[in-house]
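haha ok so turns out i had the wrong file open the whole time. this is the CORRECT one, sorry everyone. sequence first:
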Amino acid sequence: MVDSVQITVPEPLRFLTPEGEVVGDLPDFAHDRDSLVSMYRAMMLTRTFDTKAIALQRTGRLGTYGSSLGQEAIGIGTAFAMRDEDVFLPSFREHGAQMLRGVSLEELFLFWAGDERGNAFAEQAQDFPVCIPVASHFPHAAGVALAIAQRSEARVAVAVAGDGATSKGDFYEALNLVGVWRLPAVFVINNNQWAISVRRSDQSAAQTLAQKAVAAGVPGKIVDGNDVIAVRAAVAEALDNARVGKGGSLIECQTYRLGDHTTADDASRYRDDEEVSPHWREEPIARLRNHLVAHHGWSREEEKALLHESDTCVNAAAEAYLTIEPEPARAMFDHLFAELPANLAFQAEEVADG
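then structure:
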């Protein structure tokens, strides 16, 4: 048996330890208290939305939902690095990034209820809807980036997906195009160590997911995905390079999925608490809170006010969502074709008449 190829793996980019202490030289934005508080507020709102969405699902008022628990820094750091004119292509854990980019909480609740109106973003026309099929949005991102390049625009397509997506052909084909055509696309991988019940080590013999960029001829970077400062800094650098014609990048954000894959999953069937528990001390919200308390005077009163603000915002959105009248059953046919084929048109009429 031939051993897998070993390479020298750099340490992940990190600026904060789990205790919130500084490692190395902070980027400029991380010296500003308001900037840090803005990211902290966004992660707190994301987790509050997460908690409410799971509660609604458990009580039959929302569909199957994918939690971002412990992974908030990836979406938030990515969104803070992006410009409004960039194009975001999310998978199903980037609720926080979508919020920051103008998608309303009501729209997010509608989406997870299976209502297509949740994808008709009122304030974010250019971003793509959530991609549930694994990795199929990477070719879309390459196509968006190709259009941007052909128009000579200073914009970037940013796609985010989990570690399991890097095992799909869609990912490799899209990354290859990004490399060959030097497309302005940044692929961010949320390596939470699990593709549903499949461990990261059972998916790929590669030492890192970032090194998969080598075959495509694009830069690959490893980041501590629980450090929102590191995620933002790494994505910002990749975006800057893409805007000036240096092509795309692959960024592997290393984190851990603290909860179930979705509300349809029971992670206790394939891992135990002894494995999960140590990762709670690494999670991103506590890490940034520790830093704010120790270095920026974040107070208990500010924490309580922020919790109240997040709860109020999410509860108001949930109440508004629950008052929205469901669409008629025929609406399931409205987003398939410009003109329905005869067999579907017949079914649509049957549903409408029924």
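The first strand starts at residue 87 and ends at 89.
again sry for the mixup
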